[in-house]
Amino acid sequence: SFLKFGRLVKIYFYTVTVLWKLMRTEKKILKTKSLLILFVLLSQFFINSCKDIDRNTIAIGLNTNPITLDPRYATDAISYRLIRLLYKSLIDFDEEFHAKPELADWEKISPIHYRFTLREKLNEFHDGSLLTSEDVKATYESVLNPEKISPHRSSIAMIESIEVVGRNIIDFKLLYPDPLFPGRLVIGILPKKLISKKHNFAREPIGNGPMKIVDFKNDNHLKLLRLHDNKIIEFITLKDPTVRVLKLLKGEIDLIQGNLPPEIIAWLDQKKSIHVKKKIGNTFTYLGFNMEDPIVGNILIRNAIAHAIDRESIIKYVMGASARKAEALLPPEHWAGNS
């Protein structure tokens, strides 16, 4: 009944509030874990009292909305991951983060001259038009255009000129040598004709990736079509991690992504109906300082702050031993991680 549903919702939110307050103090961590498990059991009761959902899609729960689906402007992680499904770039990376061909192969003609040749089988946009070197040129010139204010402009500022040699061949000439230059060409390629028309790629992306847009009218709900089997993939924003878990257990979503309490992950890992997949990550958490500030601009102050942070305890108690100490910006798995 609606009354029963309302009471359960009230209990749910009250429990979340209590758990959050308890988790803020290290002394009550053991008590928090016990209460959290009890809360999940309560959630299980809540879930079983609801009706099953019948759908024919794959639904993924996200922890935040994508800000934009235009690869020229995306900087947040969610937008970037979705853009990789919608667009292809000239290059990609292997597991050690070495640049490898995606849309194109390349050759280094000189330290300041690189030639890229597009691969024939990948050259078609979702609207049916062919992807050519003209589209590559238009995409990167758009990023380099200071009036467009792309946040990625500085990463390719060494480009002096872009020249179309043939339908599938394009040359990049640089202002100065950059041995890592191929790895900088990670922007998804856009159709030249739509760039000139100022198409709204942020909401209506046209790329040539493994998925294409179906619907993005609601900021919290994105639908993509997976091209190889015509399956609809839904991306639903659920900012509360507990709500994502509830919907996963209920069957309203099939996968969840984003931050989850370590206790919940451990509990889910014990359920036969849930598959928890773990992988070493390459993201990191950091403190940034204003180097022009008279206090934190002093290296002795920054050293003191660094020594005052108990990283071992943060990893053990806050992150549930699901992280590792970062000794540099790059992880050890990166080809330059141990340099």
UniProtKB/TrEMBL annotation:
InterPro entries: SBP_5, SBP_5_dom. Belongs to the bacterial solute-binding protein 5 family. The lineage of its organism: unclassified sequences, metagenomes, ecological metagenomes. Residues 101-337 form the Solute-binding protein family domain. The keyword Signal applies. PANTHER family: OLIGOPEPTIDE-BINDING PROTEIN APPA, PERIPLASMIC BINDING COMPONENT OF ABC TRANSPORTER. Gene3D superfamilies: Dipeptide-binding Protein, Domain 1, Dipeptide-binding Protein, Domain 3, Periplasmic binding protein-like II. This is Solute-binding protein family 5 domain-containing protein. GO terms for biological process: peptide transport. Keywords: Signal, Transport. GO terms for molecular function: peptide transmembrane transporter activity. The keyword Signal applies.
